[in-house]
Amino acid sequence: MIGLFLIEDKMVRIKEIFTSIQGEGPYVGYKQLFIRFCSCNLNCDYCDTDFNIVNSKEYDVDELVNICNKNLDCHSVSLTGGEPLLEVNFLNEFLPACPIPVYLETNGTLYNNLKEIIDNVQYISADVKLPSCTGFKPLWEEHEKFFTVASAKELYVKAVFDSKINDIEIAKMCGLCRKFDVELILQPKMIENVPAVNSNFMLEVLNKCLKQYNNTRLIPQVHKFINVI
After folding, report:
1. CA atoms within a 13 Å half-sphere pointing along the CA-CB vector of 194
2. Helix (H, G, I), strand (E, B), or coil: what is residue 158?
3. Which of 2, 1, 227 is nearest to 117 (CA)?
4. How many domains does the chain have?
5. Helices (H), 46-166
6. Which end of the chain, N or C, is less packed with Cβ atoms under 10 Å?
7. Is residue 151 part of a domain?
8. What is the CATH number of the domain that holds 168?
């Protein structure tokens, strides 16, 4: 539901705000300001995020802009969650005033919401949700529509996988990334900071993907290996 925790257009509920390094994808190691939104329109089996609104806080646009102004040494502000695009009304107010580049981390399904704010986003990290890992139905059509919009900006695609990944899913996600000429990042599912699959299996999946789409990389969640938030 769009705006599930929206109090009014210029207020939003945030789970936490902190600075750390980006631990996923091609921008691993860059310092970012993370703004974690409450709520998500999906419920993936592997999700490690606490969406409980307990201990969350409401912010207005000016408050978040002021926080960004105090963190100008960051490469960008990562809007993460949860699903930030659920709060599109708030983002329409906040993003034009944000003083640092915007890095949107999204599940890659809310394409109509993305259309409203994409002009004020510089980087997009979008998921491909593999049914074997998420525990729910395929979302290929939603992802394709999302990438149609998102590919106007710097976009990379992330796919979390475990031992249940299959050749049909590999062909589907490689085909989607090939169509939009975007980098595919394979990310092994983590269980308490330990990969759910061994290194041989990771390389097997990587090699299967490379045979179908050369612009593919294997990058685990680095921040969990070095024990930072």
Report:
1. 3
2. strand
3. 2
4. 1
5. 61-69, 88-94, 111-117, 131-134, 140-150
6. N
7. yes
8. 3.20.20.70
